Amino acid sequence: MNPFINNFLPILVFFSFSFLLSLIIFGFSIFLAFQRPGTDKLSVYECGFDAYNDARSTFDIKFYLIAILFVIFDLETMFVFTWSVSLSGINSNGFWIMVDFMFELLLGYIYVWKSGAFDW
Q1: Helix axes 62-85, 92-114, angle to 10 degrees
Q2: Residue 76, Cβ neighbours under 10 Å: how many?
Q3: Domain of 7, in residue numbers
Q4: CA 20 to 30 Å from 89, out of 7, 26, 67, 98?
């Protein structure tokens, strides 16, 4: 058997199984669930804001800014974690590339801080 197929056959089986399982669960949720819209669906949930009737209502942009900054710095944490796990296996070039990455991340954090994005 082809070594390419040998290596990737378990991944293909896994994706096929997960796709089939998600279709089954989605199908059951459509056919078995009762849809009962009511006033509770339009009430305040976890965010604390009332439901808007008009899409052009004003909304404070700082919530979105904090969320975007969190996503950006959270993705950088993923890179730092993989770097720390593989630190013993990389050469000095990889080490200095990651130090440069950390320095640029620090510069971005200082810029966001000095621009007042964290001030409420």
Answers
A1: 160
A2: 16
A3: 1-36
A4: 7
